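re: the backbone from monday

yeah here it is again, tokenized this time
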């Protein structure tokens, strides 16, 4: 049995660990709430953009825009969204598992230090990595998307896909591969985008007569890149909410385990102390008996 001094040292260490994990749980909970509020705040705007795009899709020839033109896929362009820090449970491992399942030629772009380190360590073709803060402002995500869209237009990559942890609820974050470009069908893309932000995944139609200036085609050409920007931004917000949720759950589990371990150590300490007191009493009694 360990000495009481060793047990006291372990108890002190576990108490410090529990205090740290409790503080990290509270910080993650606060950040998760902010990330959810950001995602919810952008939902009405994203839904309105979806309705505008759906209305335009019925009035133009889709094949006229390069984002809507199908072409042979020689090199996939994949944006991998992970966290900058660890202590988020299996979140990053689940996302990176999807990366390992990519067997076709692909170029990778990373948001998050963990994903960038994995791509570099496994010697995959990583073109660029970017940093997005916990605040996840649109101005931070926009350069990433515009860079990938330019690579797509230049023919460097033939698709734009996003691998990210989709936020379902506080306990569940699903690793997902989300195709973005090319758009096979605008209506289907709009329906999927609405489902990603919590709406119903049903294509909508608008039969009202509308006048577009300068023309419906030119409005669509201006709207599509911005809509892709906004769509990927919503995926980043979902990934941020997933990160803070996973970290909060991981820290709560660590805190609960520390509390249980502390209870076991306290019981062990009491037993050791009682055994020590009993041994001392026996020694005193034996000494008195020998003296008599």
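seq for it, each position gets an aa:
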């Amino acid at each position: 049995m360990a000495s009481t001094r060793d047990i006291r040292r372990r108890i002190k260490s576990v108490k410090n660990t529990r205090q740290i994990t409790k503080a990290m749980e509270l910080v993650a909970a606060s950040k998760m709430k902010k990330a959810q509020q950001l995602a919810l705040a952008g939902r009405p705007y994203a839904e309105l953009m979806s309705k505008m795009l759906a209305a335009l899709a019925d009035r133009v020839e889709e094949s006229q825009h390069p984002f809507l033109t199908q072409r042979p896929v020689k090199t996939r362009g994949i944006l991998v969204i992970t966290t900058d820090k660890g202590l988020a449970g299996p979140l990053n491992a689940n996302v990176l598992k999807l990366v390992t399942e990519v067997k076709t030629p692909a170029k990778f772009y990373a948001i998050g230090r963990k994903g960038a380190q994995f791509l570099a360590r496994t010697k995959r073709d990583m073109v660029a990595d970017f940093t997005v803060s916990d605040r996840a402002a649109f101005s931070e995500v926009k350069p990433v998307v515009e860079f990938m869209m330019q690579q797509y237009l230049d023919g460097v990559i033939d698709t734009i896909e996003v691998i990210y942890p989709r936020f379902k609820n506080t306990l569940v974050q699903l690793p997902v591969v989300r195709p973005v470009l090319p758009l096979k069908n605008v209506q289907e893309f709009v329906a999927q985008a609405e489902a990603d932000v919590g709406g119903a995944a049903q294509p909508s139609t608008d039969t009202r007569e509308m006048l577009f200036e300068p023309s419906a085609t030119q409005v669509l050409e201006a709207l599509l890149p911005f809509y892709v920007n906004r769509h990927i931004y919503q995926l980043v917000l979902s990934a941020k909410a997933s990160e803070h949720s996973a970290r909060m759950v991981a820290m709560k589990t660590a805190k609960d385990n520390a509390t249980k371990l502390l209870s076991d150590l306290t019981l062990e300490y009491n037993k050791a102390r009682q055994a020590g007191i009993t041994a001392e009493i026996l020694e005193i009694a034996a000494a008195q008996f020998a003296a008599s």
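The first helix runs from residue 4 to 57. The beta strands are 76-81, 106-111, 126-130, 159-167, 173-181.
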